[in-house]
Amino acid sequence: MSDHDFNLHPQLAQDTHFVVDLPLCRVLLMNEARYPWLILVPRRENLREIHELLPADRQQLWEESDHVSRVLTALFQPDKLNIAALGNIVPQLHIHHIARFQTDASWPAPVWGKFAPEPYTADAATSRCQALRTQLQLL
């Protein structure tokens, strides 16, 4: 499958900023400035669950998740890293990686639904995406 066959769910496109394409996944920055929050979306069509990936893609997903986790930890030193594949609203397979801090607005509760999102300014989004892209391209 080529990347031309990949379609990002409109809700993910609306709620995120593009960071980089890794070998399997598109990496997106959630437009929520309170949390360093990345989303990995395997560039495969019609997937809802991790077990639907081919075995080689499943292994690649875990490698990329590990890499993203290490980058978030190195850049932000979170107290906890939350990783989840929920998909209750957006059915397209996507995996959240959220750096959490005991001082963040939602701690220790989940980040979903507690507050209206606090979007990045255009400059802050560009800066954050560039810093992440630089580190993530070292894969």
Automatic annotation (TrEMBL):
It comes from the Bacteria. SUPFAM superfamilies: HIT-like (SSF54197). Residues 38-107 form the HIT domain. Coiled coil: none annotated. InterPro entries: HIT-like, HIT-like_sf, HIT_Hint. One of its GO terms (molecular function) is catalytic activity. This is HIT domain-containing protein.
